[in-house]
Amino acid sequence: MNRKKVKATSYFDYSLLFIIIFLIGFGFVMLYSTSSYNAQIKFGSSTYYLKKQMLATALGFVAMFFVTFADYHWLRKIAPLAYIGSLVLILLVRTPLGMTFNGARRWIGIGPFSFQPAEAAKLGLIIFMAYFVERKSKSIKNVSTYLALMFFVALVAGMIYIITQNLSSAIIIMGIGIVMLFVASPKYIHFIVTGLLVGVGGALVLLLEGVVHKSFRFQRIVVWLEPEKYPKDGGYQVLQALYAIGSGGILGKGLGNGIQKLGFVPEAQNDMIFTIICEELGLVGALALVALFVFMIWRFMIIANNAPDLFGSMLVVGVLAHIAIQVVLNIAVVTNTIPNTGVTLPFISYGGTSVLFLMTEMGIALSVSRRIRYEE
Questions:
Q1: What is the pLDDT of residues 216-230, one digit of tens each?
Q2: Quick one: DSSP state of residue 212?
């Protein structure tokens, strides 16, 4: 009896690559539409923000290309170094290399270049967590292993929060770590207990800050509840964002015809760019963008489920968690579903550091997809 030979064929996720390219192209269009007025007023060039974003994206494409066609297993060798390097970069914010923009000291400047260590920390944590989970896969259900992994996650998030005062990045980093642990660990009781402790602890910290220190974070919650009463404390931005979303209606005012970007929504090209998308492209355009992100997350799930090993699978889970958490938080903030935390919309918002590291993460996901084999 003749046996039919089974041929193993390599795979590459062209669907994910198409989504990445489309989101970047769409981001360029919306960034120019959103920022051209402010760029002309501040810098004398309507393409100022667009050119800087395109330069960072070009560097990101180079990084994505090299990472995609490299064997992702080399990341195992640098995983501990990536984690330690992330901590060092965070500490450098408090040295003379640290830079302050808009009252926040969250950047490092080296010559003409500047970047946020928080973005590097997200990538470093993803690589290290994937490495550690693979090494401890047989003992992942043990409390000691779980606590060790949570410590590594909490250390990065805590340093980001304490040193750079960047609560949004700390939340995203904690979210990435918890999602990766949740996928890897079969003991869900650990997460229930952790969730209760974090929830109670977070509530106590906010209460302490609000009652004793009168912090701006507690004030953000007050503004979130009644933005119309506090126009000078952040309520103005929230209200203008809601006006932009509401005025767009179903089909929007048309690309380039938005009004709120003309100085009404502060820094609209950053965290609030989704409001301008709603105003100019309407509910239809906003839902189409959300659908693209959902499709992207689904492709990550396909790659993670079919990855050739646990390390590759966990790398993609980390990238999935990063994108999903950031998209959800950004949309929740601009629609005033949660208090303002300053989270950018991946591939769409202005931010060179963000897009550079996001493209590197896309390269990792595509590299894992290249190692998938299927039988014909």
A1: 566 677 776 777 766
A2: I
